[in-house]
Structure formats: structure tokens, C-alpha cells
Design goal:
- By secondary structure, the chain is mainly beta.
- It is built from 2 helices and 8 strands; from the N terminus they run βαββββαβββ.
Length: 130
């Protein structure tokens, strides 16, 4: 049996045409994409250093929806990186809204958080062991 791993699926609004934020900020690489007839994105599979995640247009039955649909999210995406400050700066310059600037915490992490242009909440972190 293969080793299990998580691959989050982020729901995007119907009609989404680009996902440039993720390659710009995280160096994500798009592995495959399936477009709708109008050219909008139906599914995009991306990788950040081998960690897979997907974007999928919202479902017809309304059970999966993008953050804007209800004005929030139920999950924060935590991403451990080498340079928290560099990722935070790249995110802000690519259109993210910084919700907590990067700082060191007494539990041994450097963390900062932002909301990306699609409304997803990200916690950018590094273990620093104070």
C-alpha cells in the first residue's frame, strides 16, 4: 500500500481564469490543468516542492464552495518554509492581505499569516527553537 498523504483541494469560483498567485508566491508548479469550454479553470493540480494540492471549480450541488460564498473559511493552510519573511513579502506584493506580520513566538516558531486573493487563509511558519 502506498504511503498516504494529504492533497488539499481548494475550491475556486466558476469562471476563474488564472492562478498566478501561487507560482509567484510559493514557487508552485502547475502539473496539469483541465479547462472548461470558455477557457476557465475546471481543475488545476499544483505542487510546492513535491506537496500536491488542487484547485477545483465550485460544485453544482453547492456542497463545496469558495471562501467568498460565505465570507470565510473553516481551515487555515499551514505551510512550513525556509524564509517566512520572504514568502510574506512575496504574498503581499502579489495581492495578499497580511493578517499577522511575521514574528517569533515563544513556542519556537516564526509565523506570519495572510489571506490570498481567492480568500484562503495561510499560516507561513518556520521552526526556530528559541
Amino acid at each position: 500500500m502506498a504511503t498516504p498523504f494529504f492533497a488539499p483541494q481548494l475550491v475556486i469560483p466558476n469562471g476563474t481564469m488564472e492562478l498566478d498567485f501561487y507560482p509567484k508566491v510559493f514557487g508552485a508548479r502547475e502539473l496539469r490543468r483541465f479547462n472548461n469550454d470558455d477557457g476557465s479553470i475546471h481543475v488545476s493540480e499544483m505542487s510546492i516542492d513535491g506537496a500536491l494540492f488542487h484547485f477545483h471549480q465550485e460544485s453544482v450541488d453547492g456542497t463545496a464552495f469558495p471562501p467568498a460564498r460565505h465570507g470565510g473559511v473553516t481551515t487555515t493552510l499551514g505551510l512550513f518554509v525556509e524564509d517566512v519573511d520572504a514568502v510574506m513579502a512575496a504574498a503581499e506584493s502579489a495581492g495578499a492581505v497580511i493578517t499577522h506580520p511575521a514574528q517569533d513566538y515563544d513556542y519556537g516558531y516564526r509565523q506570519g499569516s495572510f489571506v490570498d486573493p481567492l480568500g484562503y487563509h495561510w499560516l507561513i511558519e518556520k521552526v526556530i527553537m528559541l
